[in-house]
Amino acid sequence: MEDEEEKLFAREVANSRRVNENLGYGIGIFQAGSNLFLNGVVMGTLYAGGSLLATNQLKAGDLMSFLVAAQTIQRSLAQLSVLFGYYVRGISAGARVFEFVKLEATIPVKGGRIIPYHTMMGTIEFDRVSFAYPTRPHQTVLKNFSLRIPAGRVVALVGASGGGKSTVAQLVERFYDVDGGAIRIDGSDIRSLDPAWLRGRVVGFINQEPVLFATSIMENIRYGRPDASDNEVREAAKMANAHEFVEAFPRGYNTTVGERGVTVSGGQKQRIAIARALLKNPKILILDEATSALDAESEAIVQAALEQCIQGRTVLIIAHRLSTIQNADVIAVMSHGRLAEIGTHEGLKKLGGIYADLIRQQQRDDKTGKNVKVEKTDKVNTPASWAL
C-alpha cells in the first residue's frame, strides 16, 4: 500500500496548497483594493487641495495631516488583511479543539451515592437490559438480557464474537448507560452511584492488552490507587506474582517500562496490570480475555496470579477458549445479545445446545491447527483447567 498512501498524501498536500493559494489570493485582492481606494482618495485630495491652497482656503499643514492619516489607515488595513489570514488558519486548526471543549458528558464523572465499603457484598444483577451503542443506535447489542452474579462467585461469559460479551463488562463499569432495564450492584442501580467511586474502588478491570505508561513500575502499579504506599505496592506485586521479576531488574521497582510497556514481555505487562487492579482491593473483578495473547508458560504464571486474586471477590470472566473456564461456578452462554444458556460446564455439555456446539467447533479447530493449545508447564502449581 506504499504507492497508494503516497498518492493519498500527495492529494491531501495538493488540497492544502489549493486552499492556501485561495487564501493568499483573497489577502492580495483585499490589500490591492484597499490600497487602490486609499491612494485614489489621496490623489483626489491632492488634486482638490492644490486649488484650495492656491485660494488660501486650506492650509498646507492641514493637507499634510490628512495625507499622514490616510497613509496610517492604509498600513493598518494592510496589517488587517494579514491578521485575517491568521484568523482563518486559527479557526480551522482550532475547530476540532472547540468541538471537544463544547462537548458535555452524558455520564457525569462524579456525583451520586457511595455504598459503605464494609457493607458491600458485590452482587451484580442485569435486569432485562437492552443496549445499543450511540454510534450505531439502530443495531441493538443486548436484548432483554438478564443475569444475576452472586457475591463471591465466578461467572464466565462465552459465545461467538459479536454476541455482546465485552459490552456487558463495559456496562458494569458504566462507560455507557443502558437503553432499557437496569444494572444493579447490591440492589442499587449503578446510575445512582458515583461513577468515580465505582470505577476507582469497586471494579477492577483486566483486559487482553493492558495499558502501561512511560514511567516506573512502581508508578504504573500505584496508578490503581494513587495514595498507596510503597509497601502496599510491593504487596500487590507479590499477590500478582510480579515481585520476583521486578526485583530482578537492575533498578527494581524504579525500572521505566517505556511507552505502553514496550520494554517488558506480555506476561510481565499482564502481571503489572493485575497488581494495579489488586492494589485498590476491588470487590468486583472483570477479566476480559486476560491471557489469550500470552504463550503457554506466561499464561500459566498469570493464571497462578489470577487464582490468588479471585478469592473473596465477584469475578466476571469473558473468554473465547472454553477449556479455560471449565471450573467457573456458572457459565453463561450469549447469542445475539441474549442469554441463551446457563449452567455448569458438565451440565451444558450434556444439554447439547450452543455451548456443546462451541466445544465441538474448538476441538475441530485444535485438530486442524487453527487454535493449537500447548500444554502448561509444571513450574506453577495451578489447575490447568483454570485460565481466562
From TrEMBL:
Residues 1-89 form the ABC transmembrane type-1 domain. Signal peptide: none annotated. The keyword Transmembrane applies. This is Mitochondrial potassium channel ATP-binding subunit. GO terms for cellular component: mitochondrial inner membrane. It comes from Halocaridina rubra (Hawaiian red shrimp). Belongs to the ABC transporter superfamily. ABCB family. Multidrug resistance exporter (TC 3.A.1.201) subfamily. It comes from the Eukaryota. One of its GO terms (molecular function) is ABC-type oligopeptide transporter activity. It is found in: Mitochondrion inner membrane. PANTHER family: ATP-DEPENDENT PERMEASE MDL1, MITOCHONDRIAL (PTHR43394), MITOCHONDRIAL POTASSIUM CHANNEL ATP-BINDING SUBUNIT (PTHR43394:SF17). PROSITE patterns: ABC_TM1F (PS50929), ABC_TRANSPORTER_1 (PS00211), ABC_TRANSPORTER_2 (PS50893). The gene is ABCB8_1. The keyword Acyltransferase does not apply. InterPro entries: AAA+_ATPase (IPR003593), ABC1_TM_dom (IPR011527), ABC1_TM_sf (IPR036640), ABC_transporter-like_ATP-bd (IPR003439), ABC_transporter-like_CS (IPR017871), P-loop_NTPase (IPR027417), Type_1_exporter (IPR039421). SMART domains: AAA. One of its GO terms (biological process) is oligopeptide export from mitochondrion. Keywords: ATP-binding, Ion transport, Membrane, Mitochondrion, Mitochondrion inner membrane, Nucleotide-binding, Potassium, Potassium transport, Transit peptide, Transmembrane, Transmembrane helix, Transport. It is a multi-pass membrane protein.
